Structure prediction request, 428 residues.
Amino acid sequence: MRKLSAVKGMNDIFPPESAQWEWFEQHVRDVMGQYAYGAIRTPIVEHTQLFVKGTGETTDIVEKEMYSFEDRLNGEHLTLRPENTPGVVRAAIEHNLTYDGGKRLYYIGPMFRHERPQRGRYRQFYQVGAEALGFAGAEVDAELIVLASQLLERIGLPGVRVELNSLGLPAERQQHRVALIRHFEQHADLLDADAQRRLHSNPLRILDTKNPAMQEMVAQAPQLLGFLGEQSLKHFETVQALLSACGVPWSINPRAVRGLDYYSHTVFEFVTDELGAQGTLCGGGRYDGLFEVLGGKPTPAVGWGLGIERVLELLRVRGLAAAAPVPDAYAVIPDAELLPVAFQTVLALRRAGVRVQMHAGTQAGAGSMKSQFKRADSSGARYALVFGQQEVQQGTVIIKSLRDGAGAQELRSLTGVADWAATLQSPT
Prediction:
């Protein structure tokens, strides 16, 4: 049989790399807890129409990138989620989550898009998302941006620039849309095939083009900021003022429109130049109309999604990847007859909070003392617990240092290992 491999663009993650993910995810949970955001878990598979209606029929995601299929048992059209905001809103509507007021929610999980795999862009990728449902004020927009900024700062990534824009209200976008179409029609000879296709269906997306031949013409296009009314301007100015008050540097990017149709008012991105083309670490904005689009009551909402792979890649680029955890101790067991005693002792240590790795293969006769010590050293453990025949008969175990003061050792009572565990756990 031909050797099977992972699907292209869908990656295995295993130690020690997986430790980086767990380290980051724990920081996410800690920061979300500080802001009173609770975890939500939604299905990976949703009805296709959720994303067609919610994400937008003319977006790249829906047109080109979704993994969709027909359930062969009942004929339902289903899709692996390419993003999770529509799923969160669907869950909120279905379970009436905002009946007693707003909800602050976050999630961590895989998303799926059929794209060309490259650095920082995979077909299965992982996102952290934060969604504030039922809150209309600009202060919540600012809170979410500050939350993302604090998360990046906490893991050692300060200075990622924040780019802001406002998409205003639907009527303002409609006026801007008319002006955009007029501008692009006047330069129709410069439009590529994708822009020509979007000209009348979604001209705002043309502003996000990566085509070098169109950059100058797009830069001259009318800006949506010039069409904002007093209410939208006040909302946007409040966000800016609150970010400045919190010491979060920002700049306005009038071309930041995001790739999703449901945004209104504030949109934002956290961007770095250190990852090449995939430099957007986090992006989001306000989506007050999405609840109605998906069949719910009018409900204001704002949120963002952050790419875990890109954040971890930026940590590597900056040389800031967290050290993988290693065991505190490695159990060296030269004789299979000593396994019951070793198991009992190691269990007591683990219950006391000590990370212990046991040598495997003793029962099968594998592993001389020399090879076991070699494995103990390569494990990164600070100590070796040596269960020698003579020591065990005397009710003791040898604790040998493998790092600081390597070679130093002491005898400890088998029944008193918790005392040693307490000294190990205490700060030096």
